[in-house]
Amino acid sequence: MTVVTLAAVAAHFGRDLPRCVEKVVGITAAARQDGVDLLVFPDACLGGYIGDFRAPDPEDPPPALDPDGPEIAAVIAAAGPMTVCLGYAEASVGGGRYNAAICVTGDGVLGTHRKVHQPAGEALTYLAGDGFSVFDTPVGRLGMLIDYDKTFPEAARALAAADAHIIAALSAWPASITDRASRLPADRQSRLFDLYDCARAAENQVVVVSSNQTGVMGNLRFLGQAKVVGPGGDILATTRAKGGLAKVAIDVEAEVGRARKVLNHLAELRPDTYRSPL
C-alpha cells in the first residue's frame, strides 16, 4: 500500500509577477513541510489570467515566461521531493504566448501541457496547444488539463487511455459572465465546474486534483472550489468558494483498482461503434 497526500490550491494570483513567485514558493514550502506529495496550483498562477473573455486588454497581457527561466527555477528549488503542477503563460518561439502548465520536482521538469480548447475570445491572447501528454511522477502516472479542456470528455479520456491514474486540472474558472448569480455557490458555472470534475473522474475511474483561482481580475470573478475527486466521482476534499488547500491522503493505485474491479470503463469501451450516424 502506497498512500500519498494530494492537494489542490484555491488562491488569487494577479499581474504582480514577483509577488506571484513569492506566493507560489511560500505555499510550496509550507505544503512540503506539511507532507504533501502532489501540489496543484491554479492556471495562470505566475502572472495572472486575462481580465475579459470577449475583449481582453491588449495592453495588459499575462507576462510571457521562459520555462527555463528564473520563475520556474524558483519553484523547482522549493519543491524538493514534492511534485508540483503550476500554470503560466509560456513564451512562444515565434512570438505570442501559450496558456501552459508545467509539472516539476526538485530534480527538474517532469511534463508540460499547452491548453488546447479555447473559450470565447481567449485566442486573442493565447495560442492553442495541439495535444495531450502523460508522464511518470513520484506520485504515479499523471496528465494535465487547463480549465476549459475538462469540458470535453475526449481530453480526459486521452489521458486515462494513456494510463494516467491522476489528472491535474488547473483552472482560472470564473463565474458566469452572462447570467451571474448573487452568490457564487448558486452560479451556473459553479455547478458546471464541480460537475465536470466529478464526471471526468468517474467516467475514467481516475483521481482528479482540481485547482482554481479565487478573487477578481478585470470583469472575471473566479470560483475557487479546489478539490480532490476519487475514481468513483466522489469529492474527497474541497475548499468550496474560499481560498485554501483541498488535501487528502489516498492510495491512488488501490482506489483506482477498486473502482475498476467489476466495471472497468476503459477496458469495456467499444471504439469501433463510435462513428457518426448515417
From TrEMBL:
Pfam families: CN_hydrolase
Record's keyword annotation contains Glycosyltransferase: no
EC number: 3.5.-.-, 3.5.1.77
GO function terms (MF aspect): acyltransferase activity; N-carbamoyl-D-amino acid hydrolase activity
Endoplasmic reticulum as UniProt keyword: no
Alphabetically ordered keywords of this record: Acyltransferase, Hydrolase, Lipoprotein, Transferase
Recorded superkingdom: Bacteria
Residues in CN hydrolase domain copies: 4-271
PANTHER family, sorted: CARBON-NITROGEN FAMILY, PUTATIVE (AFU_ORTHOLOGUE AFUA_5G02350)-RELATED (PTHR43674:SF16), NITRILASE C965.09-RELATED (PTHR43674)
Designated name of the protein: Nitrilase/cyanide hydratase and apolipoprotein N-acyltransferase
Organism: Mycolicibacterium tokaiense
